[in-house]
Structure prediction request, 626 residues.
Amino acid sequence: MAGGLTYTAIDSTSLSTAEIYGQALVELGEKHPEVVALTADLAKSTKIGDFMKKFPDRFFNVGIAEQNMFGIAAGMARAGLVPFLSTFSQFASFRSADQLHTDLCYQNVNAKVIATHSGTSFGQAGSTHHAICDLALVRSIPNLTVICPADGVETYNAVMAAYNTPGPFYIRINRGFDRVLYKDTNYGFELGKAVTVHEGSDITIIATGSCVFQAWEAAQFLDTNDGLKVRVLDMHTIKPIDKEAIVKAVMDTRRIITVEDHNVIGGLGSAVAEVMAEAGKGCAFKKLGHQDCFAPIGLHEDIMNAVGIDSNGIISAVRETMKMDFEEDDNWDDEV
Amino acid sequence: MPLSKTEWLALEKKAHELRMLTLDTTHWAGSGHIGGGMSALDVMTVLYHKYMKIDLKNPKWEDRDRFILSKGHVGIAYAPLLCDLGYNDKEMLKTFNLSNSMMGMHLDSNKIAGVDASTGSLGHGLSIAVGTALAARVLGKDYKTYVLLGDGECDEGSNWEAAMSAAHYKVTNMISFVDRNKCMIDGKTEDVMRLEPLADKWESFGFIVKTIDGNNIKEICEAIDFALANETDKPVMIILDTVKGCGIDFMEGDYTWHYGSLDDEKYEKAKIALQESYEKRIARVEKEGK
Prediction:
């Protein structure tokens, strides 16, 4: 296994994604005395309690004060520390947006934001605690690398990559358990490069975060039941996005569906559409995600089902998209 | 150690030179945040020319004392100070605020040597200063962090988050100032959004507060000496009772000079006013200095 991760696949099913982050942070803390951890009264929820116990002098719980946490982290980073800031995605983005923008990103400091409870993974908490707009905000901030890992193992890889890459990072992870996609860390994770988790030539699903597993499951089902060869890309890095993989998918499959636990405005789907439009290459295209609506309350999997970003929703969308042809004719009457 | 007359005179001279250079910079730029620049220049001069441990050859020296200009719009006075120190070419001041200049009204810490934080969005500096000071603790360094807030800026709630954390973490290696010039863009601070009792607010947040004449170099030095000698576990806040536009009679106390432009006539008048103000200040030092 790469990167020194000692957990097995069993561990990644027994540890939640945030707990794996907590372990990764301890590992970094042990190796690197300049790593410090900050949270805003969410040490328990963000699972950085082990770091707190092991390195109490390098742990700062600033209370319910996210703006201050970001400012403190910026000061620490400029003085040579490597702060990891953990709070819920909604507050890591919107509540402290100005500090994220100016103190972290404009100053281009070496600080890592671990935004937990992303998307609708804190389902029952409702829209005050869902983060379905954060990607739209954070991916537009210069200097910021934005990652949305598919599961706990990928979160480990993302955290290690963030430590090893200077500059501000926003890593968006879920509350609770993610379905396990990767058995170990050694699958070729590379910042800015999509992972092909299922090969196919009929259609491409570009997914991020918890939707990658759903897409992978859908691809297997469609292969067995519909005889469709579905390519699934794990687009873990939202910025800088893997343009090459997107354009290649347009060329190879001529049909693309994006899936994200985020509003369809401003997130993965928008990022993919931008790449396609700029490439001058079109194809049949559908964006799955929250359709510019606040999500209902419920268990994460129920919300994903209701919104159509689970495997069932993806299967339906694939079948529908297979009926669509990318038209290369000059007749615009049926488009406009 | 009490401020000697010679040292006091030297600091007055430097503050005067920097006021003149700030006036020039505002004139070259066509306009600028001159009012708050003039109110803040005494404490900035004292910090950089008497107290701060810095390396003039290496602005990024990791053991240097830090200065966070939370009222970042006063770049118009900070840039002249940093150029005068030799960190940046003085000629750059002639490009201040102009297209393609490295120097905009809020200085960029990644472009302008000596700037310890990119500020401008208000209510950020105290948090950054707390982080800088806590980093010294984690890294085992003994540098000091100085932070200068504007008074209008104290409206921002984030300052009070930072204040709580400074007291909670006992950040005594940080010394804070508020430039209490009592003016903000839209009017007098007490008319726009009442700040008083400001000293009580800081005190209740866990600071030791000293209020002084913030345009009196001797009092500034005494207050910093007091803060440096602080052996309690409370951070020190020095409220600088200052005059907006200090030294330029027609700007003094006038909130409309928060940001203003200077034509040639006003520029010449301002120069004369600064010279007269300087002479008065020198006369006072001659009388009171020891």
